[in-house]
Design goal:
The complex is a heterodimer.
Chain A: H1 3-34, H2 41-58, H3 69-96, H4 105-126, E1 131-132, H5 135-139, E2 143-146, E3 150-153, H6 154-176, H7 178-188, H8 190-195, H9 200-226, E4 228-229, H10 233-248, H11 253-273, H12 281-295
Antiparallel strand pairs in A: 1-4, 2-3
Helix pairs in contact in A: 1-6, 1-9, 1-10, 1-11, 2-3, 2-4, 2-9, 2-10, 3-9, 6-7, 6-9, 7-9, 10-11, 10-12, 11-12
Chain B: H1 2-41, E1 44-45, E2 49-56, H2 63-83, E3 87-94, H3 104-114, E4 119-123, H4 128-140, E5 144-147, H5 154-157, E6 165-167, H6 172-185, E7 191-196, H7 200-215, E8 219-224, H8 233-238, E9 245-248, H9 253-265, E10 272-275, H10 282-285, E11 291-295, H11 303-311, H12 321-337, E12 342-343, H13 345-353, E13 382-387, E14 390-393
Parallel strand pairs in B: 2-3, 2-4, 4-5, 5-6, 7-8, 7-9, 9-10, 10-11
Antiparallel strand pairs in B: 1-12, 11-13, 13-14
Classes of the chains: A mainly alpha, B alpha/beta.
Chain lengths: 309, 395
């Protein structure tokens, strides 16, 4: 047994899965409240990555940052999350709220339109070139050896830890706060929540804010870990985030987290162990999605929907 | 009863669609050859402005190298227009090389150029897979096309585009010999891992280098990644710990840079990296002194290179230089074909075959003329080593 390869793929899978989990959370939260698949979510993640990049440039670039590397990263996170949170609210107000009482296909098409709009706006504004976060110059990447077979870098540790931290904050927000209670109530029955005095419009906007902020965090993390961002990166990431949300159980927050890690680990272990691994990694991921639909359509942690007939 | 009626109606509709599709295909095929023949043989009055199609990845994942090629082509246009009474005008087509659409955009662009009667020749496309995909459209329209970067060996030797396609860059067979020779002869490496990017250019070059290294007794591992991929950590984990060199015949310098950085972050920074001409870029050379690359023997001290650098804020973008020569070849062919005031695409193609650019006039550091396959007669490849972030020729 090649333990070095096993642990390497485990860490790679958890790192990638952390990013997918953050994207999946946005999908699942919006679906839970509005029963809408927000296909623009992947592009919000891309915008977050670019905001992080431009904040870094504004701070002086990776070689001559005005503050220490880790502080610069913290600022990048905060600005990107706030910026994309606002973007998410804007998208909800202009693209989805007017269609809230329309047939379900209408907001879905609107979501696709927003996705194309964001992609092409990014291409127009920022061009097609790859942008580099240059994390090496920013914080000095180090790898740690534990024993003979286990290697992990400081960036991977940071990504996994930061993702868990954000997920913990979200779980606390939804489970332990008044706003979270309002979100759960709206997700359970929007009409009843409105009748109980909950300002549903505000709750929905807040949900979009939080979901988009998490996607932005994922985008900045992607730039830090993998170094490169570009205008079209949101499409595939969005698909994988959506897959993670469905595999975990669409509408379930713990499910989205679990789904994200499962997708990341599937990709990593497929690359490491299966024939044509890296080339067909996406094939294995989407095969997992199809298998999930066949075996457990509600997802790993989702509940089957019972309809009264 | 109702279900049966719906099923019959659906079947009839499908049958009708199939008939219409077959009829329109027949119609199109019948019309196409005569339309194409008319365009290929049609004489165009050579006015003051001559139109050249320029196919390059203006946008998309390969835009960082595509823009290099565009800048060099435009640089030739600028110098030509400043020194000639006749002027070159580009008809641009964005191929979006490396995008999720594959070669669909390149094919659309080729069709658009083919149906534009003022276009007499084409510079591009950039990728070997794009050359393969656009051959039907360009050849069908009678257009000769000259690429400054498509290096897959088979695209000139398979006979499919003889007389139509030419390139101002040596093929992979030259590159692979230089690379494998340097790896075994100078670096004396015995364990190599090759990672291709699943495109025609990369797979072809990787196959040749792998075969040549194995023939010399080198242990070779092989894997592939997608051009859309950014996370290489899983594949880096697969590379055996005793690997001495990783060969990356890739087209996208930002991806090469990302791979090198991820190698470092996973504690594999001491492994040598060798790129191909697609990675001949400061993004790749900036990774460190463990980086090597192969490229044609361009002279960086050439006054045109210096003038280009000055025009572009100090960036030399040498990857695009063969596109300057490709434009030089196409415009020269058009000028010769237009000697009597009119020219057809067939005449321009005939002149492309007769191209003779002296070593002094060529930017490539060698004279440019073509053999019967469309390859340059002289086609060496050099090996470069990164020294202080800049590639220096060592082989």
């Amino acid at each position: 047994m090649n333990w070095s390869l096993f642990f390497g793929e485990l860490v790679s899978g958890l790192t990638l899965g952390s990013i997918y989990a953050l994207i999946a959370l946005g999908y699942t939260m919006v679906y839970g409240i509005l029963k809408l698949l927000n296909f623009a979510h992947g592009d919000v993640y891309m915008v977050g990555a670019f905001i992080g990049f431009f904040v870094l440039q504004w701070l002086g670039g990776p070689l001559t940052t005005a503050v220490t590397g880790w502080l610069a990263i913290a600022i990048m996170f905060v600005v990107a999350m706030l910026g994309c949170g606002a973007l998410g609210v804007g998208i909800e107000i202009f693209a989805y709220r007017p269609l809230r009482n329309a047939p379900r296909i209408a907001p879905l098409i609107s979501a696709l339109g927003v996705s194309i709009f964001l992609q092409n706006s990014a291409l127009l504004l920022w061009g097609p070139q790859f942008r580099s976060y240059d994390t090496f110059d920013l914080i000095g990447v180090k790898s740690y050896h534990i024993g003979r077979n286990f290697f992990i870098s400081n960036i991977q540790i940071f990504t996994i830890a930061a993702s868990f931290g954000l997920m913990a904050v979200l779980t606390w927000l939804v489970a332990r706060t008044r706003t979270g209670k309002a979100m759960r109530a709206t997700s359970f029955d929007r009409e009843a929540a409105e009748m109980m005095g909950i300002r549903v419009d505000r709750v929905i906007s807040f949900t979009f804010f939080v979901g988009s902020a998490l996607a932005a965090a994922g985008g900045v993390m992607f730039g830090i870990v993998f170094g490169q961002i570009f205008s079209l990166m949101g499409f595939t990431a969005g698909l994988k985030g959506f897959t993670a949300a469905v595999v975990g159980g669409i509408g379930s927050i713990p499910g989205a987290m679990l789904g994200g890690f499962l997708i990341g680990l599937t990709e990593a272990f497929a690359t490491g162990y299966l024939p044509g691994g890296s080339t067909y990694a996406n094939l294995y991921v989407f095969a997992l999605l199809i298998a999930m639909f066949l075996v457990r359509p509600s997802g790993l942690l989702g509940s089957p929907v019972i309809q009264k007939v | 009863m109702r279900r049966r009626a719906i099923a019959i109606a659906a079947l009839l509709a499908l049958a009708a669609l199939a008939i219409v599709a077959a009829a329109s295909a027949t119609t199109n095929r019948a019309a196409a050859p005569s339309a194409q023949a008319a365009t290929a043989a049609s004489l165009v009055k050579c006015g003051k402005t001559r139109s050249i199609g320029l196919m390059a990845p203006f946008t998309g994942p390969a835009a960082s190298i595509g823009i290099n090629q565009v800048h060099w082509a435009q640089y030739f246009q600028r110098t030509y227009n400043a020194t000639h009474k006749t002027k070159i005008k580009f008809v641009n087509e964005d191929t979006m090389l490396g995008s999720a659409n594959g070669t669909a955009e390149a094919v659309k662009g080729a069709q658009a150029l083919g149906s534009n009667p003022s276009v007499l020749g084409v510079v591009g496309p950039a990728g070997s897979n794009e050359v393969k995909a656009t051959t039907g459209a360009l050849k069908g329209a009678g257009l000769g096309f000259v690429s400054g970067s498509a290096t897959n060996t088979q695209i000139t030797t398979d006979g499919t585009r003889t007389g139509y396609f030419f390139r101002t860059v040596p093929p992979d067979s030259s590159q692979s010999k230089s690379v494998s020779g340097y790896i075994t002869g100078k670096l004396k490496v015995t364990k190599v891992y090759i990672v291709d990017d699943q495109e025609a250019y990369s797979i072809g070059l990787a196959d040749e280098v792998e075969a040549q290294l194995k023939a010399k007794g080198v242990t070779v591992g092989r894997d592939g990644v997608s051009q859309q991929q950014s996370d290489f950590s899983a594949i880096i984990n697969k590379i055996p710990r005793d690997t001495e060199l990783v060969y990356l015949p890739w087209q996208l310098p930002p991806k090469g840079q990302a791979f090198g950085q991820q190698m470092k972050s996973l504690g594999r920074g001491s492994v040598k990296l060798m790129g191909s001409d697609g990675l001949f870029d400061p993004l790749f050379s900036g990774l460190g002194s463990n980086v090597y690359d192969s490229f044609f023997p361009l002279n960086p001290s050439d006054k045109r290179v210096k003038a280009f650098k000055k025009l572009h804020g100090g960036a030399s973008e040498l990857f695009g230089a063969p596109s300057y020569v490709a434009t030089q070849v196409v415009s020269g062919a058009i000028d010769r074909a237009c000697a009597n005031g009119t020219a057809s695409r067939a005449e321009v193609r005939a002149q492309l075959k007769k191209t003779k650019i002296s070593k002094k006039a060529s930017l490539l550091g060698l004279p440019v003329s073509f053999d019967k396959n469309g390859d340059m007669v002289k086609k060496p490849f050099g090996v470069y080593h990164s020294v202080n972030g800049v590639f220096v020729r060592v082989g």
